[in-house]
Amino acid sequence: MMVSFFDQFASPSFLGIPLIAVAIALPWVLFPTPPTRWINNRLITVQTWFINRFINQLMMPLNVGGHKWALLLASLMVFLITINMLGLLPYTFTPTTQLSLNMGFAVPLWLATVIIGMRNQPTVALGHLLPEGAPIPLIPVLIIIETISLLIRPLALGVRLTANLTAGHLLIQLIATAVFVLLPMMPTVAILTATVLFLLTLLEVAVAMIQAYVFVLLLSLYLQENV
């Protein structure tokens, strides 16, 4: 039974071909294409309003040089939200529960922010490794600590997204199994458990959106330090 709980995180395959590429490409098919008309339908209007509000909030702390990342960060945000939300549907696969995929997003984008900082303002970028006013005997130790903290940033990004989504999916499956088992024996307890399951599902919808936002927000903060 315990092994089957983790089967939902295994990448599906058909005739030996992994279908994770299909799961990653599918969200882009669901997005409506803006028409050439002046007046759009309600769905496209809401989508445009959401993306504009998100870009305004995200780019506000950044200078003009960081605004070049607006399209990339907005696309990543919408992509992660869509994948996370689709993963809550029954009999679906959530690619963002795979640490390899999340690290594939986190490492190149984090590395790009570091390279930009080293290229544009190397003195300021290296200055982040040593807090101002640090005692001279502690300088080597502080530099090592700050370097380690810099290097684990992409790991923290990937693990945070993976752990939150994995824990939520496991809780939903555990409580759903409990409802199925308790229903013949104790219907009242099963109904109460089903209510908890419904509330947990609503919480997971919020977590799916919040974790995508946090992922992109932390990337923008890393970018802010280097532009």
Question: Whole-number average pLDDT?
Answer: 83
Structural class: mainly alpha
Query: What general outline do the C-alpha atoms trace?
Result: globular
Q: How many separate helices?
A: 9
Extended strand count: 2
Number of domains: 1
Stretches where pLDDT is under 50 for at least 5 consecutive residues are none
For the biggest sheet, the summary is: 2 strands, antiparallel
Describe the structure.
The protein has nine helices and two strands, in the order αββαααααααα. Helix 2 (20-30) crosses helix 4, helix 5 (99-120) runs antiparallel to helix 8 (153-185) and helix 8 runs antiparallel to helix 9. The mean pLDDT is 83. A two-stranded antiparallel sheet has the order 1-2. The chain has helices at 2-5, 20-30, 42-59, 70-86, 99-120, 122-127, 139-151, 153-185, 187-226; strands at 13-14, 17-18. It is an all-alpha fold. The protein has one domain.
Structure at a glance:
Keywords: ATP synthesis, CF(0), Hydrogen ion transport, Ion transport, Membrane, Mitochondrion, Mitochondrion inner membrane, Transmembrane, Transmembrane helix, Transport. The chain has helices spanning 2-5, 20-30, 42-59, 70-86, 99-120, 122-127, 139-151, 153-185, 187-226, and strands at 13-14, 17-18. The chain has 227 residues and is mainly alpha-helical.
List keywords for this structure.
227 residues, mainly alpha, two-stranded antiparallel ribbon, 9 helices, 2 strands, 2% strand, globular, proton-transporting ATP synthase activity, rotational mechanism, CF(0), mitochondrion
